[in-house]
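Ligand-bound model needed. S-adenosylmethionine.
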Amino acid sequence: MGGAVSAGEDNDDLIDNLKEAQYIRTEKVEQAFRAIDRGDYYLDGYRDGAYKDLAWKHGNIHLSAPCIYSEVMEALKLQPGLSFLNLGSGTGYLSTMVGLIIGPFGVNHGVELHKDVVEYAREKLDEFIKTSDSFDRFEFCEPVFVVGNCLEISTDSHQYDRVYCGAGVQKEQEDYMKVLLKVGGILVMPVEDQLTQITRTGQSTWESKNILAVSFAPLAQQNRGDGEKPDIVYLPPVTVRSLQDLSRIYIRRTLSSLAGEDGLGRSSVQRVLQKRKRRRCRRRRINTYVFVGNQLIPQTVESEEEEHGEEELKQQQQEEEEEEEERDIGDIEILKQVNLLRDQIMSLPLPESLKAYLLYYREK
Ligand SMILES: C[S@@+](CC[C@H](N)C(=O)[O-])C[C@H]1O[C@@H](n2cnc3c(N)ncnc32)[C@H](O)[C@@H]1O
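Prediction:
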């Protein structure tokens, strides 16, 4: 499934294409997609395929196509502070993007059938938290994944504001999914080859809307013998943050706004004036022939050429017969990614251990 938009060269390129094709329509969804590189969820050696609008499967690891994720993220209508449940959470790519929008006062849970996939998702999440600058540009609700069959969730589990199911749902499984929702909540899932958005409008009323024709692998079902009990899945508890954690969130929030960050990762690109690379004006000796009287005489004539770009400059240096002349042609503006929050924290007159705490012990 997928292939609706042209392939990108990198993550930003892919997002540009998804935006142009109207799959991404809101700024917060765009920022979440830009903040997380889809290639980081691919196995080493497969990354090249990450920026194509195609689903990817390798063993138990399975990612849906970018155009599907865009529609899903838009249809979920995410807001800060909401609770989210991802059924078939896979690599955690979608859950991590959701976490950037719902922020630290949200709830972010995922259920995945395969233990190895949950381990993979935890590794990827750890990598994101430790190494990505996006972590400091957004307020994040860390996803918590559990292993289990999402069709066997304990009946006394809490309900969620938003639910997504990443595998095909049959008509008779629809009611089971709908009760996982709070009143007013939104459920997005592929039901019989239609990506469907269901809004719970009351205790026993729902409204349904088809979004897109899709093709998903169906939810795996457990084959059990007669009388064999299901392995009930207990969802993670909804925990209250500690006072220490809350303080860290508010200190970071205050510092971010002082630094001009807006929580959507927009002001981390700084315009920097830099001396423009020198343009070389080179004189090249060209062997040519001139007529003197009626005779052709070989001559060396000097020609002038202007060159731009590093590659060409390197080549020029190798050409020994050239005479080079350099001149400075002023400043140009370049865009530089900066971590404003980190800079703010590092400049505080605080003990190093406290700075490290405020930075979530991130070294980058
Ligand atoms: C298309 S993938 C979803 C990928 C995910 N959205 C991501 O961001 O990586 C579907 C996932 O559903 C899982 N799955 C299928 N049936 C399941 C079930 N009954 N319970 C839990 N997970 C299931 C699969 O193992 C697979 O990881």
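The radius of gyration is 28 Å.
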